[in-house]
Amino acid sequence: MRKGKFAAILIAASVLFLPAGCTKAKGEASDTIEIDEKMFIAQVNDVYLNAEDYLGKKIKLEGVFLRSTGEEPYYFVVRYGPNCCGNDGIVGFEVAWAKEKAQPYPAADSWVEAEGVLKSYEEQGYTLSYIDLSSLNVLSKRGSENVLQ
Fold first, then answer.
1. Number of domains in the chain
2. Are 133 and 114 in contact (CB under 8 A)?
3. Is residue 147 part of a domain?
């Protein structure tokens, strides 16, 4: 897994919020954990704070697709939340295709639905979480980019 400073910043921004439990997808009897719009920050935070409970589990979320700049780009699905200067906090997950399932990434700022398994890697003494993608679909209808909880 490729590593990056941006991933560490994303994680640091997301752990500033109080945790709450994640829920299964509505109406589904599956093991997929759906990060919903209403409690997006709290659910993402719970995954980061309790990563050992979520590693290896399927996670599904919608958000803005971002790519970092630099020699090696990193990819994220995020929403924006409150921070020190208004809605400039970024909350979400790094996402990546495994080499054997690699597909093209969408354009930056696309609204996407991402699904995959939560995995982790080590970088400079930190354990970072990411979603190993099984699907990444561009959606025509955008949800709320700014979330409060």
1. 1
2. yes
3. no
Q: What single string gives the DSSP state of each residue in 72-127?
A: S--EEEEEEEEETTEEEEEEEEEEE--GGG------TT-EEEEEEEEEEEEETTEE
pLDDT for 30: 64
User: How big is the chain, counted in residues?
Assistant: 149
* For helices 40-49 and 5-14, angle between their N-to-C axes, nearest 10 degrees: 110
pTM of the model: 0.79
Backbone φ and ψ for 102, nearest 5 degrees, come out as -55, 135
CATH code of 80's domain? 2.40.50.140
Token reading at 7: 């991933």
Collect the ranges in the chain with pLDDT lower than 70: 1-30, 86-88
Residue 129's pLDDT is what? 94
